[in-house]
């Protein structure tokens, strides 16, 4: 069992189901409101824990009802929350998700809340936990100085890191160089490198930048060529959290010492299973489900 530590965001997801997204100035009638724990950091921690990794979460929540629900949920999923701090300075983070039935996709507005208080001081308090990890996961829903602090700490002590630069924007290009692996989707990659095409970026950062392409799988550069790891064809019900499932699964696989190609196949399988259920965490699979899909 590998040890995965996630430093990142925790939130409550408020998902509205609609037939179609409203245009500017338009009001539409929704069919359902779904309340569930989320936040990219917490999602990735749950994914890793369900897939067998010994998982730890470093973050911040408000002293409110949402915060208590977030803490209880992480504990119920087997995530160690010893480094999850609470505050009365602001409320817990929230994500407001519109799920369109017409095109089977979603749009999301994130309110940082207490996630904005994940800072270098908190990272320093959790340094001992980071140093004992096999892989550390970070996302872009916490402040940039906290991300840099995590990457600096892990580089100093030789711990491998996965940086998921989502949502796009706000990070300096040199931050990329500090991470062992960087996992953007196409949109996030374009935001970071607006004047370069996909192949040129992969070639510039061989083995470091791994781009997720949804139904087209994931790609990276190795030995003078693009390597594509194909996805699994499934009928998607809700894509919310698929990217987080991928990153959490990748972290779990790499923490066990799986080679990168095998780890990416494992992550693709986990993500494919996740989109067949509602909610960011609701569809995240357990280890046996992923292994069964991999066996065909």
Taking strands numbered 1, 2, ... along the chain, how are they ordered across the largest sheet?
A: 5-4-1-8-9-10
Would you count the extended β strands for me? Answer: 13
The CATH class, by name, is: Alpha Beta
Give the SSE order as H and E letters: EEEHEHEEEHHEHEHEHHEEEHHH
On the 0 to 100 scale, the average pLDDT is 93
Uncertain spans: none
Task: Predict the CATH topology.
Answer: UDP-N-acetylmuramoyl-L-alanine:D-glutamate ligase
Percent of sequence in beta strands: 25-35%
Helix content: 25-40%
Principal-axes shape call: globular
**CATH superfamily heading:** Ribokinase
Structural domain count? 1
CATH architecture: 3-Layer(aba) Sandwich
Question: How many strands, what sense, and barrel or not for the largest sheet?
Answer: 6 strands, parallel
Binding site for substrate: 11-13, 39-43, 141, 244
Binding site for K(+): 238, 240, 274, 277, 279
Binding site for ATP: 185, 212-217, 243-244, 268
Cofactor: Mg(2+)
Description:
The protein is α/β, with parallel strands linked by helices. It is built from eleven helices and 13 strands. It has helices spanning 40-50, 65-76, 120-125, 127-131, 144-157, 173-178, 186-192, 198-204, 242-255, 260-274, 287-295; strands at residues 3-7, 11-18, 30-38, 54-62, 80-87, 93-100, 105-111, 135-139, 160-164, 181-182, 211-212, 218-222, 225-229. The strands form three sheets. It has a six-stranded parallel β-sheet with strand order 5-4-1-8-9-10, sandwiched between helices. Strand 6 and strand 7 (105-111) form a beta hairpin. It is globular. The chain starts with a strand and ends with a helix. The mean pLDDT is 93. Homodimer. Its EC number is 2.7.1.15. The active site is at residue 244.
């Amino acid at each position: 069992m590998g040890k995965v530590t996630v430093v990142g965001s925790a939130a409550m997801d408020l998902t509205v189901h609609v037939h179609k997204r409203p245009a500017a100035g338009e009001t539409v009638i929704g069919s359902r409101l779904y309340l569930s724990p989320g936040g990219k950091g917490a999602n990735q921690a749950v994914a890793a824990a369900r897939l067998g990794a010994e998982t730890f979460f470093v973050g911040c929540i408000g002293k409110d009802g949402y915060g208590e629900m977030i803490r209880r949920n992480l504990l119920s999923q087997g995530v160690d929350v010893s480094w999850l701090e609470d505050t009365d300075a602001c409320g817990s983070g929230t994500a407001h998700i519109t799920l369109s039935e017409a095109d089977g996709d979603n749009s999301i507005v994130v309110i940082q809340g207490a996630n904005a208080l994940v800072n270098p001081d908190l990272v320093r308090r959790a340094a001992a936990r980071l140093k004992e990890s096999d892989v550390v996961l970070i996302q872009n829903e916490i402040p940039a100085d906290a991300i840099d602090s995590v990457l600096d700490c892990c580089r100093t002590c030789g711990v491998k890191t996965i940086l998921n630069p989502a949502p796009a924007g706000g990070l300096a290009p040199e931050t990329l160089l500090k991470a062992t692996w960087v996992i953007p989707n196409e949109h996030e990659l374009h935001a970071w490198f607006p004047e370069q095409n996909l192949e040129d970026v992969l070639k510039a950062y061989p083995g470091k930048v791994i781009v997720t392409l949804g139904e087209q799988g994931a790609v990276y550069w190795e030995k003078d060529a693009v390597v594509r790891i194909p996805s699994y064809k499934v009928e998607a019900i809700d894509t919310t959290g698929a990217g987080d499932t991928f990153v959490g699964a990748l972290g779990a696989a790499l923490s066990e010492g799986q080679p990168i190609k095998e780890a990416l196949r494992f992550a693709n399988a986990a993500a494919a299973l996740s989109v067949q259920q509602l909610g960011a965490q609701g569809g995240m699979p357990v280890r046996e489900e992923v292994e069964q899909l991999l066996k065909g």
